[in-house]
């Protein structure tokens, strides 16, 4: 059999695997948005069956034989074929190396862990979650060891690699090391300035439908295509892609404040544009999906922060806001909206954090989860360690664990190694945006006229259409002409703090 | 291995098969109600993959071995176990006997056939559909032969059996034979009476949300549980069950007339109550699903016609209609609403037909599709045969094929043998309703107070909860204490015609 024929067999098998993943994704979207409450047990079973079938197909000897054949004749592959092989092998090796028994124990532990976490958070009682966290960490250690962690590799790396291929804990330490001091300094400057931002331009008694209507105008300008997408209400905002022709985002609102709905919609639409921009020719192939969570987050953060919290953006959209959403407490002056959108204020809760302190929240979690995983920090001592680190890094100390260590769902879900992708996203976003500004000199002049499409086209060309043909860091490097560093992010934040707080 | 252990293996395998079917059903529901237009190609692929996997699992040697073992030790099975074996074997034999090649050719032919039918209907040009119908019929003949048709069995029977297990063309001829004369006579009486029904109590400029609001009140009284269900808009009304805890119905409306929305909702909710009433202990087992399409249709027609078009029903709901949906052209007098809901008027389009002539539409299709399948009627001559038979049976002659042979989607979908289940449903419905009235003497007194729940409880106990443990006809026979005949239906229609038309 020729390499081309084997490649075709790989595509056939992978197409079916993609379809199983897509079916799952639609059922999960449906569960969050549409499913009646009593559907829960049926849905859990259907999802488990689809996962089991996907695992069966991914670990099947037939697929193993195809990949082994291609690995052997690797030299004959062109770069795109090599990318398909790399991604397919990566996924299969992971599936083969982790025993089914461990997968099932993890599923059980995180399912119980999530329930316990919900109760623990609502009662702010960490002891209810502690035994579950201990077990989950033990299972994550076991997973890491199956994947080579704890030997040549840092125990953290195989877990991180699942979310951000190629990244290591050591490189993250360097990246975060370069961020920590300057971010703390910026937060300090804001504190010392004593200035307060007036939020009233976003506040009032705001009809949710009008909030959505304004969001839709922005999304239309961004080029989020509703013939290939949907917007629905859900308890938490997310983006769910089921192929470039079917990308769905969700939103929620605060009746008194436009910001959660608006910036949430723009954030998710940033993810959505990435999914809609994937090359249809790569659809259902191993290298077809987005490059990594970090790159994905870069797209949402870029639109949310670098575009929609900028002054040119509000010069363009302020008149439209006045028109679509009257009745806010403060006037729709571009400058006032820019200030209100950019408020920097240290806070306990990550998902409400501003652009500057957000990354300190991530640093906190990264430091803690590394120590928890290695065993250096016993889980019983984690709440105190959290509170100390919060005070040290962010300058605020939680009084209740619900506002501290119990605030995030990730560890209860078993997502250890996930948090850093948020900050990687911020770093990539600023790095890419600087390049886009250089490549399109009139970019921000366009924002003033609500012309956002040139940016979408630039991102589609440089990032979206490539799927995971290139590894994430290389993709960003090629798009920007230089490897990503935190410098662009720091430059952006310094300028913003200076503009808003005069320091 | 013991019978019990093998049974457990059967349940495990069947649970996964059910889950695959459920995943498909949710994706199909999503496609009709939620999916953005550009999602079509992705969705088609996901559905094809899920169907292929289900076929692979249903025809797998592992499942074959389990069923063979149980068949051999059939005498040791209790009645419930025997029912599971019967239903599982039935499904597997069908899948094994029809070659994959034929399934694929049918999928292709009906996919092209559906497109051609849509165009043919919109242009009222039968010649566009003719070659597709020819091919579809050829493939259905081939399917029937694979299943034993054309030899000892009538060519029609294996196709019919798919929708109504145990029913045969010969028995249908007897049933329909008993219906035809009396129905024609009733239609004639109505014609001769010269009376016209005043439809204004249902007509006006009616806000769709208010139409739905009234429908919801009726559905709540019926006991359709929205914690275990949903109602959404779609181009055509349907009911989609994904387990007793997740049953979804769709509706459409006519701004000028409440009847399509209201009776459509009640009809689908009748199907929905059946799905919600299935025994959760039978969920995901071979004998878990509803008994047949005929029995399913009996539930929707019972609520739509025998309940919601009755005088006691409108005595109960007329005041509520006035309250929820003001602004209709005619007043909400119970008697007026009863008359308007029961109008008998021969018409060309089946889905708009009244209770009397509806079954003549079905008889027409049944007669024609038998002759088309056997080859007695060449497809080229079918439009003329349709028109003649329409004139003979219903008393109206289509002038355009769009209003004649091209009106229904079923043959284009390859659903030959499906139509009779509609009339079986009507027969079962009337037979069951007579029994319910006998078992609950205050039944219709309750309707006058909007108490519909006792009927749902009766149906749940007698029909819904049994799944397909009993074959359809036996289920109805045991529920009613006597085998179904068309007599109850005829009695009901005679009474109605007499009440409305004084004849």
Top keywords for this entry?
mainly alpha; Neurolysin, domain 3; Methane Monooxygenase Hydroxylase, Chain G, domain 1; three-stranded mixed β-sheet; homodimer; 21 helices; 65% helix; globular; 503 residues
Tell me what you see in this structure.
The structure is a homodimer of 503-residue chains. Chain A has 503 residues and is mostly helical. Among the domains of chain A are: 3-163, Methane Monooxygenase Hydroxylase, Chain G, domain 1; 200-345 and 429-470, Neurolysin, domain 3 (Orthogonal Bundle), CATH 1.10.1370.30. In chain A, 65% of the residues lie in helices and 3% in strands. Chain A contains 21 helices and 3 strands. In chain A, a hairpin with a 5-residue loop joins strand 2 and strand 3. The radius of gyration of chain A is 23 Å and the shape is globular. The model of chain A has no long low-confidence stretch (mean pLDDT 96). At the A-B interface, helix 1 and helix 2 of A face helix 1 and helix 2 of B.
In a nutshell, what does this entry contain?
The structure is a homodimer of 503-residue chains. With 503 residues, chain A is mainly α.
Q: Tell me which protein chains meet in the greatest interface and how many residues each side has.
A: A-B, 40 and 40 residues
Largest sheet of chain A: 3 strands, mixed
Secondary structure: helix percent of chain A: 55-70%
Number of strands of chain A: 3
> Radius of gyration of chain A in whole Å, from Cα?
23 Å
The quaternary organization reads as: homodimer
Topology:
The structure is a homodimer.
Chain A: H1 3-33, H2 40-58, H3 61-72, H4 79-97, H5 100-123, H6 126-146, H7 157-163, H8 169-193, H9 208-222, E1 229-233, E2 239-241, E3 247-251, H10 258-277, H11 293-307, H12 311-324, H13 334-342, H14 355-374, H15 382-393, H16 410-413, H17 420-439, H18 443-447, H19 453-462, H20 472-480, H21 487-501
Helix pairs in contact in A: 1-2, 1-3, 3-4, 5-6, 8-14, 8-21, 9-10, 9-12, 10-11, 11-17, 12-13, 14-15, 14-17, 17-21
């Amino acid at each position: 059999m020729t390499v081309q024929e084997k490649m075709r067999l790989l595509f056939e098998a992978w197409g079916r695997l993609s379809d199983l993943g897509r079916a799952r994704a639609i059922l999960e979207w449906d569960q969050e948005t549409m499913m009646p409450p009593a559907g829960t047990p049926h849905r859990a079973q259907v999802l488990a069956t689809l996962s089991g079938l996907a695992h069966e197909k991914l670990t099947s000897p037939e697929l193993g034989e195809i990949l082994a054949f291609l690995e052997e004749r690797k030299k004959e592959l062109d770069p795109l074929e090599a990318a398909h092989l790399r991604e397919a092998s990566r996924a299969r090796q992971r599936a083969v190396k982790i025993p089914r028994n461990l997968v099932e124990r993890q599923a059980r532990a995180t399912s119980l862990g999530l329930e316990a976490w919900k109760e623990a958070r609502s009662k702010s009682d960490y002891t209810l979650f502690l035994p579950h966290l201990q077990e989950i960490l033990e299972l994550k250690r076991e997973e890491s060891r199956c994947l080579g962690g704890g030997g040549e590799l840092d125990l953290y790396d195989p877990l991180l690699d699942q979310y951000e291929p190629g990244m290591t804990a050591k490189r993250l330490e360097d990246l975060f090391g370069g961020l920590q001091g300057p971010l703390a300094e910026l937060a300090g400057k804001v504190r010392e300035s004593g200035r307060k931002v007036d939020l009233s331009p976003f506040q009032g008694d705001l009809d949710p439908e009008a909030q959505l209507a304004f969001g839709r105008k922005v999304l239309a300008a961004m080029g989020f295509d509703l013939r290939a997408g949907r917007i629905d209400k859900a308890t938490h905002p997310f983006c769910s892609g089921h192929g470039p022709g079917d990308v769905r985002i969700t939103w929620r609102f605060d009746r008194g404040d436009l910001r959660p709905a608006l910036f949430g919609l723009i954030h998710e639409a940033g993810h959505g544009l990435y999914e809609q921009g994937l090359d249809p020719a790569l659809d259902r192939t191993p290298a077809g999906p987005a490059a990594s969570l970090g790159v994905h987050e870069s797209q949402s953060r870029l639109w949310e922060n670098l575009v929609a919290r900028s002054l040119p953006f509000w010069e363009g959209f302020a008149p439209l806001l006045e028109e679509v959403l009257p009745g806010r407490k403060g006037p729709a002056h571009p400058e006032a909206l820019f200030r209100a959108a950019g408020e920097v204020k240290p806070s306990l809760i990550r998902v409400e954090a501003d652009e500057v302190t957000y990354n300190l929240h991530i640093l906190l979690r990264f430091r803690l989860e590394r120590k928890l995983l290695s065993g250096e920090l016993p889980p019983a001592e984690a709440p105190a360690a959290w509170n100390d680190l919060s005070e040290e890094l962010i300058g605020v100390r939680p009084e209740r664990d619900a506002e501290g260590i119990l605030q995030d769902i990730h560890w209860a879900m078993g997502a250890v190694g996930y948090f850093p992708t948020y900050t990687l996203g911020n770093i990539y976003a600023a790095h890419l945006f600087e390049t886009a500004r250089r490549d399109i000199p009139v970019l921000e002049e366009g924002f003033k006229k609500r012309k956002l499409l040139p940016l979408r086209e630039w991102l589609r060309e440089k990032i979206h259409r490539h799927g995971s043909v290139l590894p994430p860091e290389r993709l960003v490097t090629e798009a920007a002409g230089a490897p990503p560093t935190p410098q662009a992010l720091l430059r952006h934040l310094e300028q913003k703090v200076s503009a808003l707080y005069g320091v």
